[in-house]
Amino acid sequence: MFLENTPSPDAGWIEVICGSMFSGKTEELIRRLNRARIANQRVEIFKPSVDVRYSEEHIVSHNQTSIPCTVVEAAEQLRLLTAEVDVVGIDEAQFFDDEIVAVCNELANRGIRVVVAGLDMDSEGRPFGPMPNLMATAEYVTKVHAVCVKTGRLAHYSHRKELGGPQVFLGESDRYEAVSRGVFNALRANELGG
Ligand code: ADP
Ligand code: MG
User: Fold this and answer.
1) Which fold has domain 13-144?
2) Whose CA is nearest to atom 14 of ligand 1?
3) Beta strand pairing call for 154-155 and 146-147
4) What is the DSSP-derived secondary structure letter of residue 10?
5) Whose CA is nearest to atom 5 of ligand 1?
6) Is the distance from CB of 143 to CB of 120 less than 8 angstroms?
7) So where are the chain's domains?
8) Residue 66: phi, psi to the nearest 5?
9) Ligand 1 centre from 5 Cα, in Å?
10) Which ligand is nearest to the CA of 94?
11) SS3 for 183?
């Protein structure tokens, strides 16, 4: 695991928290950022403007924990906003474009600990946006899992209950459910008439 809250002498690093919807990514991000604050570190937290499901000023988990954040339109803005900071937290990183990868690496190179949470796969099971490149360039990757709503086993897919629609299609348990591999395959075989 990463050296939590250990000040780095020369360079920072990147931690990625990934998984399906309801897997506890936001909870884990908030936990790490709160601990950094307890250690008196300067923490800045961001999320993309596309995600305003619960709040425009907070990152909110499905467990109702929350932490204030700044909403940004594009990854580029993080370059300007993080002059005096020890730790940068980013949620819903899958909604940023590929620029987020360069930005996170630049911040880490400047000595900042960057903690990034995001969906690793879309509802079709495809790697989501910049997440693969973030995971490849991060020092630490934590994959968290949800509970399959059908079997109670580990879930790592976010199944969209209705077929079709764009890749970015905001929703919650109204529209998505966490399912295991076997259930995901069975549901899709049914939906596709297979
Ligand atoms: P994520 O950011 O990965 O979507 P959150 O951190 O917001 O996840 O929410 C995690 C919380 O979601 C859990 O602590 C639990 O209370 C709730 N939850 C709802 N459905 C599920 C599920 N199918 N599996 C696991 N947790 C779930
Ligand atoms: Mg989340």
Assistant:
1) Rossmann fold (3.40.50)
2) 63
3) antiparallel
4) S
5) 24
6) yes
7) 13-144
8) -150, 165
9) 25
10) 2
11) helix
Active-site residue (options: 15, 28, 44, 92) = 92
**Ligand 1 lining (C-beta closer than 6 Å):** 19, 21-27, 61-63, 146-147, 149, 178
CA of 54 to the centre of ligand 1 (A): 14
Q: Which two tokens stand for residue 190?
A: 């049914």
Q: pLDDT band at 8, cuts 50/70/90?
A: low
Give residue-wise pLDDT tens across range 134-182: 999 999 999 999 999 999 999 999 999 987 788 888 888 889 999 999 9
The DSSP secondary structure of 67-123, one letter per residue, reads EE-EEESSGGGHHHH-SS-SEEEES-GGGS-THHHHHHHHHHHTT-EEEEEEESB-T
Contact assessment for residue 35 and residue 45, using Cβ atoms and an 8 Å cutoff: no
User: Is the entire prediction scored with pTM above 0.90?
Assistant: yes
Model pLDDT for residues 122-144, shown as the tens digit of each residue:
999 999 999 999 999 999 999 99
Give the list of residues 6+ apart from residue 58 with CB closer than 8 angstroms, or none: 66, 67, 68, 69
Q: What are phi and psi of 186, to 5 degrees?
A: -65, -45
- Catalytic annotation present for 172: no
Cα separation of the two ends of the chain: 42
